[in-house]
Amino acid sequence: MASKDAAPDWTIYVDGSCPGNRDVDATTPASWAFVVVEGDVLHGRGSGEVVHEEAGSVVTEAGASGFLGAEVGSNNTAELSAFAHALRWLLMQDTMDTALIRADSIYAGNLADGSWKPKANRALVQRVQELWREVKVQREVEWDHVRAHRGHRWNERADHLAGRHALGEAPDPMSFWRPGRR
To answer: CA-to-CA distance for 143 and 128, rounded, in angstroms?
Structure first.
């Protein structure tokens, strides 16, 4: 990914969901998801094939399995958690493949790579930034903004996975899934 137009080996779409997202606290359900795609063409609307997809809950209980530092369930902690889990997935891969993380949250992307300083969610942001630095040692990784709810196939898939998980519903299988189905 030496240039902005060079396609990465993997493109990872991350998203978070928190239905309602009002009066959030440690018990507010929020979920994250990521979709790893191989062969995605830059500036396209979603080509390539899914290599891996995953979704889970934002964990707010210190000491619990999967806790990353989130104190509340919210859209922002869900977006940051999606980044964290995608970065953790990258750390477990044995290849040197380049990666581009695409997010519809400018907030999460700029906090993840350290461009912005956190005003809230400090412990979670610190953990995400630690993961970002670990991945940068291992491989070339960048992040890019993708506009939400504009029909981009893989961004919509990550949104679908996070949204369904937050509602406690099973996602549509890939073989039947089309953008726009929530």
So the answer is: 13
Longest pairwise C-alpha distance within the chain = 43
Strand-by-strand arrangement of the 141-145 sheet: 49-57, 31-38, 10-17, 99-103, 141-145
SS3 at position 32: strand
* Cα–Cα distance for residue pair 59/159, rounded to 1 Å: 19
- pLDDT category at 45 given cuts 50, 70, 90 is low
Report the alpha-carbon distance of residue 27 to residue 61 in Å, rounded. Answer: 9
pLDDT for the residue numbered 182 = 42
Question: How many CA within 13 A on the CB side of residue 116?
Answer: 15
Contacts of 56 (CB under 8 A, 6+ apart): 31, 32, 33, 66, 81, 85, 165
CATH class of 10-176: alpha beta
Contact 46/153 with Cβ under 8 angstroms?
A: yes
98-128 per-position pLDDT tens digit: 999 999 999 999 999 999 999 999 999 999 9
Instruction: Give the tokens for residue 104.
Output: 């519809």
